[in-house]
Amino acid sequence: MLRHIVMWNYSKRLFNPITLSVKTLNALWRLASLCVMGFKVRLLYANELTDRQKQEAGEKVKAELEALKGLISEIVEMKVYANPLPTSNMDVVLDSSFENENAMAAYKIHPEHKRVSQYISSVLRNRMVMDYCE
Questions:
Q1: Would you say domain 38-133 falls under CATH 3.30.1490.190?
Q2: Using only C-alpha atoms, what is the Rg of the chain?
């Protein structure tokens, strides 16, 4: 049995209908339940920067993101990687963790996060995002 759901496509900035099996939907529901039961929430965010001044922009993005750790109390852990090998197709990766989904939501609406996001959007070509529970 298949079910149709709608998911947000970040790169195209629109909603896409997708079809998932009931088994897959049940697995996703169990993962969502883990978040509610107190497992940490992680956010992985990979950025592909525009070609123009890629190295300088990557270093600035890394510095700006790392500065958020001291400004936003909801962040439990944050690592930023900005030294990709030539075989990589992303330039900067953010790996961060939060106590729960509410803490991650508070992080996303924090004024400093919004300021940094605005800069990143100005040098961004593409991005991939994954929020999950561990």
A1: no
A2: 16
Q: How far is CA 101 from the centre of its chain?
A: 13
Element holding 96 (H helix, E strand): strand 92-98
- DSSP-H helix ranges across the chain: 22-36, 54-71, 101-109, 111-122
CA 90 to CA 96: how far, in whole Å? 17
Taking Cα atoms as reference points, which of 100, 89, 70 lies closest to residue 127? 89
In DSSP terms, 105 is beta-bridged to: none
User: Is pTM, for the whole model, over 0.85?
Assistant: no
pLDDT in tens, 26-57: 666 555 555 555 668 888 999 999 877 788 89
Contact in structure between 123 and 64 (CB atoms under 8 Å): no
For the chain, domain boundaries: 1-37, 38-133
What span, in angstroms and rounded, lies between the C-alpha atoms of 33 and 133?
9
